[in-house]
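User: Before I run my own analysis I want an independent prediction to cross-check against. Here's the chain; please return only the structure tokens and, at the end, one sentence I can use as a sanity check.
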Amino acid sequence: MRAVLAELAPDDLVEFEAEFRIALAETDDDFDLARVQAVIDKWWGRAYLRMHPPTEEERALVARVAAGDVSGLYTKTSDGQWKSH
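Assistant: Structure tokens:
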């Protein structure tokens, strides 16, 4: 992840490293790696998107859903069923 950010998003790398180092320091107190994992989970998606940016079609779909149009998509109901829109 660090290599990807260094190459494709150097400004993000500074923020990632700071968050990662803080999580490591806090882990030193109680050996709970959950904080480190949370930082990795947060930044994994960002690094992946830097490597594989969304296509124009994917960006259009995100914009459509953000505007409230979910036609042609499925959502999961509270009882675990899939609902077509």
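Sanity check: The chain has four helices and two strands.
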